[in-house]
Design brief:
- The protein is α+β, with helices and mostly antiparallel strands.
- The chain folds into 2 domains: 2-201, no CATH class; 208-357, Beta-clip-like (Beta Complex).
- It is built from 9 helices and 14 strands.
- The longest helix is centred in the N-terminal third of the chain and has 25 residues, at 101-125.
- The radius of gyration is 31 Å and the shape is elongated.
């Protein structure tokens, strides 16, 4: 009983922190069947400890089902979910009108694996949807109940069957998501001066998403960034200017000038796709061993992330037409020295200009410095 209710508490905590994405069809079936079973048992066995346990379990199942419906928009169940719900509810109705207690109870046993089918599908498709220690606790609780029942010999065959099927179903989900989820060191920890619950199961959130705009592919913020925050590290191999290809076209044309005679090649990552803007919300900051894109103002969620390509350009002979759409769009992207003095000072004051461009006018090169838009 302790393991079972601890499982409900942890599962609700994970639901509140959006660490799990339970299947609503399964929880609707469980909430309905557990409630009917609890009410029926309490009517036949009033004021017994087990009747209160059933009622608390029903309340927990209904609480999770209601929380699922409240936190997300309604979406109709798919065909498999509809079949499972229909079969389960039909069995429950037959259970209520059946005269024979044994066969009525066996109908409830048959409902259990049917009700688990939507959750199995969901967990197999993405284990993170159900990655909660609760499944391990429910399995342990079922096993303890089954062992206690067999040792006392006070249960009939129907009761054994129900507990055994519950045990197998809970254990199957636990195996799908990983047995290590019950590790208490991953579930609880003292950090930053307070107890943290389930932090180890928080999914890694992708801070970006790729979408198409009038320039082609563009990088958008999937979460907000505050001014001064690191956005992404620019990768790629360092390449000598003498080794650059003569003609660079399409997706291969992504070279970032980092010195008079050196470039960073394409990384194949998100940094290759960040577009230019004449009024950017980010800029490149250079360190001894890395080049990092920094937010130069607060960037809102779903806003495109951009930087000014001119802040790294030294090639006087290279230019690129600009269609960024900013009110101060220059119409063409050229070397840093071609920017108006006040704009150069603006970038320099924010430390988002390649170090080799600061100070004296750099010598011209005969290579293009950067990728085209998109």
């Amino acid at each position: 009983m302790v393991a079972s209710f601890a499982g409900y508490a942890i599962y609700l905590a994970g639901l509140r922190q959006r660490l799990v994405e339970p299947n609503r069809a399964s929880w609707l079936i469980w909430g309905t069947s557990t409630t009917i079973e609890a009410v029926t048992y309490a009517a036949l066995n009033p004021r017994t400890p087990q009747s209160y346990v059933f009622l608390l379990s029903a309340a927990a199942c209904l609480g999770i089902a209601l929380a699922l419906w409240r936190r997300s928009r309604w979406s109709a169940p798919d065909t498999v979910e509809s079949l499972c719900m229909g079969a389960s509810l039909a069995a429950i109705v037959l259970w209520l009108v059946f005269r024979e207690a044994f066969w009525a109870h066996m109908l409830v046993v048959a409902v259990v694996p049917i009700s688990f089918w939507p959750t199995w599908r969901s967990a197999i498709a993405d284990r993170a949807r159900e990655r909660s220690p609760a499944w391990g606790l429910w399995t342990v609780g079922d096993l303890a109940t089954l062992l206690l029942a067999t040792r006392s010999g006070s249960q009939d065959v129907g009761e054994y069957a129900y507990v055994f099927v519950e045990l197998v179903c809970h254990a199957s989900v636990w195996f799908i998501i990983g047995l290590a989820t019950i590790n208490p060191l991953r579930s609880f920890g003292w950090r930053d001066g307070r107890l943290r619950v389930l932090d180890a199961y928080a999914p890694a959130v992708n801070p970006f998403h790729i979408a198409e705009n009038h320039l082609g592919k563009a990088v958008y913020a999937a979460q907000g960034f505050v001014a001064g925050e690191r956005i992404v590290r620019f990768g790629g191999r360092r390449v000598s200017a003498k080794r650059l290809p003569r003609r660079l076209l399409g997706s291969r044309d992504r070279y970032l000038q980092v010195a008079h005679d050196a470039y960073l090649g394409p990384s194949g990552g998100i940094d290759d796709l960040v577009n230019h803007s004449c009024a950017p919300n980010a800029g490149l900051r250079f360190a001894a061993d890395e080049v990092v894109l920094i937010a130069i103002r607060d960037i809102a969620q779903n806003e495109e992330i951009t930087w000014d390509y001119s802040t790294t350009l030294a090639d006087d002979g290279w230019s690129m037409g600009c269609r960024c759409g900013a009110p101060i769009c220059r119409g063409v992207v050229r070397a840093f020295v071609t920017l108006p003095p006040e704009r150069q000072h603006w970038y320099l004051a924010r430390n988002i200009v390649a170090p080799y461009l600061r100070g004296t006018k750099p010598p011209a090169t005969n290579r293009r410095a950067l990728c085209g838009l998109g």
